[in-house]
Amino acid sequence: MENESSKHEENFEATAVRVSMVSIIGNAVLSAFKLLAGILANSGAMISDAVHSASDVFSSIIVIVGVKISAKASDRNHPYGHERFECVAAVVLSVILFMTGLLIGCSAVEKITAYSIQEIAIPGMLALIAAVISIVAKEAMFRYTRFYAKRLDSGALMADAWHHRSDALSSVGALVGIAGARMGHPILDPIASLVICAFIIKASYDIFKDAMDKMVDHSCDEKTEQALVNCALTQPGVLGVDLIQTRIFGNKIYVDIEIRADGKISLAASHDIAEKVHSAIESKFNKVKHIMVHVNPA
Q1: Sorting pLDDT into bands at 50, 70 and 90, what band is 147?
Q2: I need a labelling partner for 20 at 20 to 30 A (CA). Which of 94, 124, 132, 154 fits?
Q3: Residue 175 pLDDT level (bands cut at 50, 70, 90)
Q4: Strand partners, 261
């Protein structure tokens, strides 16, 4: 079981790093393209969007660092492993996401209040094309990263996925603003940005809450706990389950369970029953990293 666990952790790290590297390369290329388009097409919105994409490179680097540390094997100073470092990375990314949304919102409010005295240059068609390409590319990166975030149950990758979505939404705002400016309605840009700001801040809150739940020994949901109980009850010699306690440690689960067995059997026989429960749960539930089984006499 220990070898399988190590192999799973290696696969988790390799896959998460590969997904993050795709994000880094994609964001670097997209950021350079949008910056060039913004300068050539005289679009401040597109230049700002390019800076937003560049910030995603930094976010993906944080994900790689967090995943690499969380995948390290247990050691003397960290006997329960390093999984919570991934939660730390998710918290950092949620803060970055929140600040990104806040900056977009503040910029939008500033543009709306100064609208009557603002002189806005009309952006060229290249900026409009760049916005459409950015929306498609960032939405594709969001779906790609989210797919692996769900598959690996990675909070840091999920946070990075929503950073991609925030960039896609930012590009939608840029598209509306650029199109509106070309049609004679530049006020549409900051209004769209305010709506985008609300979506981004909501996403950052959800990511932050999920990461904090995993860091403070939050228990599993009732469905998962009942499935653990049912698994124990199907093992030979188990007469009942007196207690089950679970806690989420990073993206792993720790289980303490008290089972009931015939009090007249030998210590060796009761230990054998406990071992069967232990093995059954660890083999059926991939997220369970450690389980402690206590036997009560019936």
Answers
A1: very high
A2: 132
A3: confident
A4: 297
Rounded to the nearest integer, the mean pLDDT of the chain is: 80
> Is the pLDDT confidence value at 269 over 90?
yes
Give residue 293's region: left, alpha or beta (phi > 0; psi -120 to 50). Answer: beta
Instruction: Name the one residue in this structure whose structure tokens are 């946070």.
Output: 159
Paired residues of 260 in beta bridges: 240, 296
CB-based contact 55:160 (threshold 8 Å): no
Cα 211 from Cα 162, distance rounded (Å): 14
Looking at per-residue confidence, does 128 or 272 come out higher?
Answer: 272
pTM of the model: 0.60
Q: Where are the alpha helices (DSSP H) in the chain?
A: 2-40, 44-70, 84-113, 125-152, 155-182, 188-215, 222-233, 267-284
CB 56 within 8 A of CB 167: yes
Query: With 0-12 CB in 10 A as exposed, 13-18 as middle and 19+ as buried, what is 277?
Result: buried
Side chain identity, residue 188 = L
The three-class DSSP label of residue 231 is helix
pLDDT at 72: 72
Separation between Cα atoms, residue 292 and residue 259, nearest integer Å = 11
Residue 115's pLDDT band, with cuts at 50, 70 and 90, is low
Distance separating alpha carbons of residues 198 and 196, to the nearest angstrom: 5
Tokens of 219: 């228990």
pLDDT of residue 238: 94
Residues 6+ apart with CB under 8 A from 218: 247, 248
Residues 6+ apart with CB under 8 A from 184: none
Stretch 61-86: mean pLDDT, rounded?
71
Question: Measured at the alpha carbon of residue 173, what is the angle toward residues 26 and 169, in degrees to the nearest 5?
Answer: 50
Amino acid at residue number 33: F
Q: With CA atoms as reference, report the closest residue to 173 among 147, 199, 148, 154.
A: 199
Q: Strand order in 288-297's β-sheet?
A: 240-249, 252-261, 288-297
